[in-house]
Amino acid sequence: MDERGISANDLQTYCAVLAQEYFFAASLNSQARQAAADRAWFAIQRFYQNCTTGWKLDPDGKRITFTDGCRIGRLRLVGNKKQEIATFPIKQIKRVRILKRADGYYVQCAVNADRKVEHVFTGAQVGIDLGIQFFYTDSNGNTIDNPRSFRKAEKKLKRLHRRLSHTQKKSANRKKARQKLAKAYLKVQRQREDFARKTASALISSHDLIAYEDLQIANMVKNHTLAKSINDASWGRFLHWVTYYGAMQEVPVIGVAPHFTSQNCSGCGKLVKKSLSERTHTCVQCGLVLDRDHNAARNILNEALGRTVGHTGTNTPLSV
Ligand SMILES: [Zn+2]
Questions:
Q1: What is the model's pTM?
Q2: Ligand 1 centroid vs 303 CA: distance in angstroms?
Q3: What is the 3-state secondary structure (H, E, C) of 114-136?
Q4: Taking burial as the number of CB atoms within 10 A of a residue's CB, which of 105, 107, 198, 298 is the most buried?
Q5: How close is the Cα of 144 to the center of ligand 1, in Å?
Q6: d(CA 265, CA 231)
Q7: Any idea which residues carry the catalytic annotation?
């Protein structure tokens, strides 16, 4: 404990020193002394494995043993064969935790790794406007559809909520219904995450700068409907991954304040007031006619590039 960094070989050598100091050690043959050194070494190794990390992975990665005070013990790891945790050097695994999800228990390993992807410059800069009709509309007028799975999930969740509310309190049926609902939420969560990651990754890879409207999604909508909350959560996850991939590929991701992005003309800057239901921007001053969200996305890009007043600055770069 006092001298970390001592090796198995140091212990073997130390046996000879002990043999000179203690007659009972000297009376043993060298192999017997070595066996004692081996056992001591094994105990030292186990001590460090147990007390410094709280967990130990079998060399083949098929089982994990928790050695902290929670008495969880030894667990068999099943599941995705492509994600072999044993292929990571143990030293890179910085944290391990167990999560309970509606469909089982998961061991989550936080792996310390440098992820840097060489960005191929495209010369394209883009502003994006997150919306209800489309997942987003960009400043070139391209749109990304909301995945159909979101609508399907919404319907299913509604049905399961109804079913739960029709069961009796503390009944077995209520327990079952609650589990089903929890699993359905888990499924939406996973679909949303998958969609958010893929869409964000594609966006970053194909542009050299991204500007978005910083809506502060958490407090955006007060009267929550289910459809809304699914959308809000997917925007949140999407922006998270845009920032993440942006940092990884060193592509700037700029949040702009949401003031007047939909009301101003992206051609000449004139204020063109419109209600929420008006889908088209028509400017009487310069004659620009654009889809409402397309106009907003152009304003977002302009603002990020400092072409208008009210520029709010760059996001602090994330370390990945
Ligand atoms: Zn105009």
A1: 0.70
A2: 16
A3: CCCCCCCCCCCEEEEEECCCCCE
A4: 298
A5: 26
A6: 27
A7: 129, 213, 293
101/200 same-domain check = no
Residues 6+ apart with CB under 8 A from 164: 174, 177, 178, 181
CA of 23 to the centre of ligand 1 (A): 99
**pLDDT digits over 186-216, tens only?**
998 899 899 999 999 999 999 999 999 887 6
3-state secondary structure of 256: strand
pLDDT in tens, 217-270: 444 555 456 666 667 778 889 999 999 999 999 999 999 887 768 899 999 999
Domain encompassing residue 239: 125-147+189-306
42-61 pLDDT, tens per residue? Answer: 887 766 665 566 888 888 88
Q: Which residues contact 25 (CB under 8 A, 6 or more apart)?
A: 15, 18, 19, 33
Provide the CATH number for the domain around residue 138. 3.30.420
